[in-house]
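Cast an eye over this sequence plus tokens and walk me through the fold:

***
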Amino acid sequence: MIVFVGGLGGIIADRYVFPYLSSTDYFMKHDWLKKASEDVTVINKTEQVFVKEETSITKISNQTSASVVSIISYPQTDAKIPARKGAASTGPTYGSGLIVTSDGLVMTYADAINLDNSKYKVVLYDGSSYDAEIYGTDAYSNLVFLKISAGNLSAVSLGNSDDIKPGEKIIAIGINPGDFSHVYSAGLISNFSPTYNLAGKSISSSDKLEGVFEADLNSEKNYIGGPIVDYTGQVIGVVGMNAGDNAQKFFQIPSNKVAKVIDRAIKKELDNDPALGIYYISLTKSYSLVNNLNIDHGALIYSPSGQPGLAIISGSAGQKAGLQINDIITKINDQEINIDHTLPDLLYQYKKGDLIELTVLRSGQEIKIPVQL
């Protein structure tokens, strides 16, 4: 018993009494107490914290979710104007959209809704619904704007798409047509395609947006018109789609291009899109190398059949200005055309009726051609 009590007392003294005494001014002078305290070992406890990625995705997307809306387009049965030839279906169409101004301007992609002979309703994040009217359509981007009578709405925040590189994680937000709840898909930006043109053809149109993201999202048709969000919660693109050759091509319009369209919509200038009216190939280093060209940038006016009438639209601003097939447009008002500054993007800075000057290579000679858009 004596041995047990003595041992217990020694442990208490060694672990608690001696370290305390050695920290006081009086006893710090005694080396034997210092030595006792130096023999004490302090063990720090570490813990592992696990973060579920699904929870993080939900939190990120919630920053944008309040701006994502459902858009219902349904037949306008009392309309006297017939639907255009080839228009499909008489049932409702459900699509996704984004609130772009707090006073009720909503944006979507043309293929997300039915533009023929239709009425529209917009369902907000909180379940409230509003009648909507078509505000305008942008021919350059295929983005469509609707207006609802509402205020103090949560407008979308656009990020800088120039900072996004292939391999970055993204989240797509769409709408479940059954109950108008949000649906999500996580993926990666797989590529930026600088020469993909929204005309959806083998050659590009001067009047359609060029340069889009491509992503590995699942069921992208469920997200047309909705946003893609990076992992900082910023919207860096809008999902679009082209149909052709019995296939659907999905892509994401970069937010910096979207912002220019929104600005034009807010200024009520969607009807003033410039139109040059030519078809072309964007020159790149690889195309120029394969085709033995001495220039690796610009827009080559082109038709696969070689027919001038299929390269330059009859009656267009381009034809009136005297542009010819195989001309290479290198500049617009001294701004160089390249894959970072495409022909449609540079043209979109101007309005219908503006006078511009094109720098053109024709048979190896540089000439200046004025064009009234």
Notes: The chain has seven helices and 19 strands. Confidence is low (pLDDT under 50) at residues 83-88.
